[in-house]
Amino acid sequence: MFTKLPRWIEVGGFWLASIAGAVNAIGLLGFEHQAVSHLTGTSTLLGLSLVNLDMSESLHLFIILVSFMLGAALSGVIIDNAVLRLGRRYSFALLIEAGLLLLAMLSLSQGSNLGHFLASAACGLQNGMVSTYSGATIRTTHVSGLFTDLGTMLGARLRGHPIDTRKIIIFLMLISGFIFGGSIGAYSFQHLQFVSLAIPATGAMALAVVYWVYRHISKVHG
């Protein structure tokens, strides 16, 4: 389970969560308060718009949902496995994510709603890219499940069961990364508007390079 996860998971998870947090903050500030790194709020807004018979808004929200799903599907095509394992094509997936975010930046800067869909697809791609490892769920684009898991672990500890400290550390790193990224996204949006999407895009590209170098060094010394 979590004890089997490689040591680079903490750093990589923090980085990925920071990217998602930044994109989500920019989305909330610039996409008419729409979150794009997770779909709970978007699904709720879709339900509200359907009740109000706002078909234009409903279609827009529905496409955001579909875009996220298509991004996750693209991840499945690229990586071809839901299991986190060194050597799979994560660098390529990260570069595509960066490309989607840059295209979203250009679209939104020109006033096109296409950018909403591209940003959502980028988050779906990332969420699909890091899913499970040895049965351990890794989430980097939303934190609701992480807080739920921490709460159930606390409850189990109160009943006298042992706590997996590695699991807690990973969850706290992911939550901290998401909050940190949200702060970066919010601050940069105040000064750069949609150009601020270049920051998480650059983060994804940098992580792709770091991962590629790490993988090849591991192969040489493996």
- Strand order across the biggest sheet? 1-2
Total individual domains: 1
CATH class: Mainly Alpha
Query: Would you identify the CATH architecture?
Result: Up-down Bundle
How much of the sequence lies in strands comes to under 5%
List the total number of helices.
8
User: Using DSSP, what is the number of strands?
Assistant: 2
Structural class: mainly alpha
Enter the CATH topology name.
Growth Hormone, Chain: A
Helix % is over 70%
Report on the architecture of this protein.
With 222 residues, the protein is mostly helical. The chain has one domain (2-221): Growth Hormone, Chain: A (Up-down Bundle). It is 73% helix and 2% strand. The chain has a two-stranded antiparallel ribbon. Helix 2 (40-51) packs antiparallel against helix 3 and helix 3 (55-79) runs parallel beside helix 5.
Summarize the structure.
The protein has 222 residues and is mainly alpha-helical.
